[in-house]
Automatic annotation (TrEMBL):
Gene3D superfamilies hit by this protein: Immunoglobulins
Family: Belongs to the immunoglobulin superfamily. DCC family.
Entry annotated with the keyword Iron-sulfur: no
Principal location: membrane
Superkingdom of the organism of origin: Eukaryota
SUPFAM superfamilies with a match to the protein in the record: Fibronectin type III (SSF49265), Immunoglobulin (SSF48726)
Subcellular location as annotated: Membrane
A Pfam family the protein falls into: Ig_3
Keywords, comma-separated and alphabetical: Disulfide bond, Glycoprotein, Immunoglobulin domain, Membrane, Repeat, Signal, Transmembrane, Transmembrane helix
One Gene Ontology term, aspect cellular component: membrane
Domain Fibronectin type-III: 414-504
Official protein name in the record: Immunoglobulin superfamily DCC subclass member 3
Ig-like domain: residues covered: 11-122, 127-214, 226-309, 317-404
Length: 520
């Protein structure tokens, strides 16, 4: 709709003037040095969450619990260094409330407001065993396996007892997997007894029910097909955790257990260990370890084999590849912030303006899955701290940047009494009056024009000389609504800059104006 010739004139002139001004970068003037981390809190114990900011004083720090501002009372103290103390952490209080939930630290100074990452606070707990060990019968030189499972926070550590005493972990026939499994290979008569598992974490210590192992003499020289008694489970872990892939094979002669990846890629050697006779342990997992793992049990010297498989999914918390940078821009220009985060699964991005969720619309646009925030024709209202929040199922992180709108005394004011009138189906006349102050520096005006239904990027400009104070826009579409605003164009006085306030060639914007062309 906009003809090429019309688009060019003003942008060309402005482009030269503006290039000199863009790219003034300064610090965010308010940012986090230390943010609260996720914590598993112990019941009835004090809990301290930390928050430190750097910024121009005075800075006030407050805390939000599940979105609501925390008030200072006997239960909560916010220290001057920003830390929050919960004197007596309780999962359930007498009034039905809970200290569990999301906590955010909110910092504010004259430049704006920033919100920290969301720290997830959970109470340490231990449920009852949901899998109890079961009594088993094993043949001499065969395999015995016990398992117990219990939910808890933090993850309970599981150990085993035999006849009331800790099992002999020095005996290499005994393999204890952190997942709550006890494997005994090459079973002997003296292994028979009563077994139970013990779970402990910061919340409790619990004993499982007892299970009995009975051992009978073997017919070991009889051939038995290789068989996989227990194969690997599907696992979802977060980076740096340890993966245990279990595989217990039986048969005579004893089968050889080996591991591979279904996609044919090598398993590697770093951080890889075999526990007991065939379990695979991967310490410090990374996203590259995600895949389907296949355990194979081979009859020695043959191709006879059985397999079992399990999928390992490794998640990575969101982290920034590119964080938004603070910028200073003259009034009326466009400000762009970019933010890119990586993680597994792909993080979602959202933006805050002075701590409030930024709702795009009008002259504020979010593009490329929220990785680009563009603010067109900035005004004083857009000056704020902008935060990019990246979040996925493995964690959340934030980065902040400030937009400074450059403006100073001695500049011309905003054009006033702007009016628009449809003259015909294809023309609209816009008129205005000079700004109230400092009009002597104005060399002309810029009229911004856009079909109301078009996105802001489609806006184009027409230049108008300083004496006319009105302009007829031609070649418009009939019965169509258009949006206008105008700005003065002025000669920066003296070109020299003082501190952070360089000369600006555009005045503020007049209010937006809507006008429709006539019907044909
Ligand atoms: C903040 O002050 C409190 C009370 O003096 C102290 O316990 C806490 O450790 C301090 N926080 C940091 C991060 O140093
Ligand atoms: C693991 O996940 C696959 C699908 O990805 C499913 O077919 C299989 O049954 C699961 N195995 C177990 C042990 O849950
Ligand atoms: C983009 O951010 C807004 C809030 O700033 C959020 O409501 C929306 O869901 C986000 N969209 C995507 C694709 O992440
Ligand atoms: C936005 O995200 C979707 C799904 O995460 C992806 O397929 C698409 O390529 C992304 N688009 C851009 C412009 O990054």
């Amino acid at each position: 709709m906009a003809s090429a010739g019309r688009r060019c004139l003003v942008p060309c002139v402005l482009g030269i003037l503006l290039n000199a001004l863009i790219g003034v970068i300064c610090e965010a003037e308010l940012s986090f040095v230390l943010e609260p981390s996720d914590v598993i809190a112990v019941q009835e114990q004090p809990l301290m969450l930390h928050c430190q900011v750097s910024g121009l004083p005075p800075v006030t720090i407050q805390w939000r619990h599940s979105g609501l501002l925390l008030i200072q009372d006997q239960r909560h103290t916010t220290f001057s260094n920003g830390s929050l103390l919960i004197a007596h952490f309780l999962k359930t209080r007498s009034d039905g409330s809970s200290d569990e939930g999301d906590y955010e630290c909110v910092a504010q100074n004259s430049f704006g407001l920033v919100v920290s990452r969301r720290a997830r606070i959970q109470a340490a707990t231990m449920a009852n065993f949901h899998v109890q060990p079961e009594s088993v019968h094993a043949e001499e030189s065969g395999v015995a396996r016990f398992q117990c499972q219990i939910h808890g926070l933090p993850e309970p550590v599981i150990s085993w007892e035999k006849d009331g005493r800790p099992v002999d972990t020095g005996d290499e026939r005994y393999t204890l997997l952190p997942t709550g499994v006890l494997q005994i290979t090459g079973v002997r008569l003296e292994d028979s007894g009563r077994f139970c598992c013990v779970a402990h974490n910061s919340a409790a210590v619990k004993h499982s029910a007892e299970a009995v192992l009975t051992v009978s003499g073997s017919q070991s020289s009889v051939y038995k097909e290789p068989m996989i008694l227990v194969g690997p489970e599907n696992l979802t872990l977060t980076v740096h955790q340890t993966a245990i892939l279990e595989c217990v094979a039986t048969g005579y002669p004893r089968p050889i257990v080996s591991w591979s990846r279904l996609d044919g890629r090598p398993i590697g050697v770093e951080g890889i260990q075999v526990l007991g006779t065939g379990n695979l342990m991967i310490s410090d997992v990374g996203v590259q370890h995600s895949g389907v793992y296949v355990c194979a049990a081979n009859k020695p010297g043959t191709r006879v084999r059985r397999t079992a498989q399990g999928r390992l999914v490794v998640q990575a918390p969101a982290e920034f590849v590119q964080a938004p940078q603070s910028i200073a821009r003259p009034v009326g220009t466009t400000a762009i912030f970019t933010c890119q985060a990586q993680g597994e699964p792909e993080p979602q991005l959202a933006w805050l303006k002075n701590g409030q969720v930024l709702e795009p619309g009008g002259h504020v646009k979010l593009k490329n899955n929220n990785s680009t925030l563009t603010i067109y024709g900035i005004s004083q209202d857009d000056e704020a701290i902008y935060q990019c929040i990246a979040e996925n199922s493995a964690g959340s992180t934030q980065a902040s940047a400030r937009l400074t709108v450059l403006w100073a005394d001695g500049l011309p004011g905003v054009p006033t009494r702007v009016r628009a009138e449809a003259l015909s189906p294809t023309t609209i006349q816009v008129s205005w009056k000079e700004p109230g102050q400092n009009t002597q520096d104005i060399i002309g005006y810029v009229l911004h024009i856009r079909r109301t239904s078009d996105p802001v990027e489609e806006e184009y400009e027409e230049a108008v000389n300083k004496v006319t104070l009105q302009h007829i826009i031609r070649d418009l579409e009939p019965s169509t609504s258009y949006t206008f605003y105008c700005q003065g164009l002025h000669v920066p006085r003296g070109q020299q800059t003082v501190g952070l306030a360089p000369p600006r060639p555009l005045t503020g914007r007049c209010p937006r104006l809507l006008c429709s062309t006539r019907r044909c």
